[in-house]
Amino acid sequence: MGFFWSLIFPGVTGGDVVKAYAAAQTAEKRAVSVLTVFFDRLIGLVALAILSGIVILCNLHNEELRVVSTGILAFISVMVGGGLWFYSHRLRRWLGLDWLLGLLPFKDRITQIDDALFEYRYHKKTLIGSIVVSLAAHIVNVGAFYLAGEALDLGVAWQNYFVFIPVVLMVAALPFSVGGIGVLEGGVARFLTLRGVGATAAGAFALCVLYRIMTIIISLPGAFVRVKEARLENGTHTNAEEPKLSEQS
Fold first, then answer.
1. Which one, of 20, 75, 66, lies nearest residue 164 by Cα?
2. Are the C-beta atoms of residues 46 and 40 closer than 8 Å to each other?
3. Strand, coil or helix: what is 174?
4. Which among 135, 164, 213, 234 could disulfide-bond with 191, CB atoms 3.0 to 4.6 Å apart, if both were Cys?
5. Which residues have a Cβ under 8 Å from the Cβ of 226 and sit 6 or more positions away?
6. How many CB atoms lie within 10 A of CB 120?
7. CA-CA distances (angstroms) from residue 200 to 9, 166, 167, 209?
8. In DSSP terms, which residues pair with 246 in a beta bridge?
9. At CA 183, angle to CA 158 and CA 10, rounded to 5?
């Protein structure tokens, strides 16, 4: 469902808003349930950066890849540094994070979200597992670009896809346009037409069109899923059955 609505909302991750709304319908702690959706997206962005960074480190001799290497490694460094700061009791106390959160409006709601985020500190295996699964999903996604490029005979080496496409997807996730239209295409054309990469502007555009078609096809089932809002009455559900997050139309 979220994947389908990403075709309509700004950014290629616009469907997260719909997923967050759906998750909040049946949750006791709505703010926390919404948080998990966006935390999942953050893990996805980190996994994209890691995927690109790994390929860069394995191909340091490739000058074309250095175009994005600084940005990718800087992003990973910021995420690691921010995580260490947020999840360290000592650093939180030294830098006054808890004091700062106490000054913000909606203190109770923010504290609840902060506590939910901090809970991940005690579930390291879950976090690592989430990143591994996200890496696998991104490998499949970038692999789709690679196979489409091979079908179009673009002549682009596989490592270029696995460095540049994650960067393009990270930028396209920002809400600049509906479904990331224009951002994705511009990024792919910008990187795949670099000297030494091999694609032409027409070939890069054809690749984006083919990828868009594949995306639309596999997201269509999400158009038939609607959110069923749970209604509570006197502490019990109005329906005899447990409320479902979504149902097939």
1. 66
2. no
3. coil
4. 164
5. 246, 247, 249
6. 17
7. 30, 20, 19, 14
8. 227
9. 125
Using one digit for the tens of pLDDT, what is the confidence trace for 87-117?
A: 888 888 887 777 777 777 777 777 777 888 8
CA distances from 224 to 1, 6, 102, 211, 220 (A): 8, 14, 43, 22, 8
Tokens of 203: 């070939």
Gyration radius of the chain's alpha carbons: 21
Q: Which two tokens stand for residue 121?
A: 């500190």
User: What pTM did the predictor assign?
Assistant: 0.77
Q: What is the DSSP letter of 58?
A: T
Per-residue tokens: 29: 């702690």
First CA to last CA across the chain, in angstroms? 12
CA distances from 113 to 29, 35, 37, 204 (A): 10, 7, 13, 42
Cα separation, 61 vs 69, whole angstroms: 12
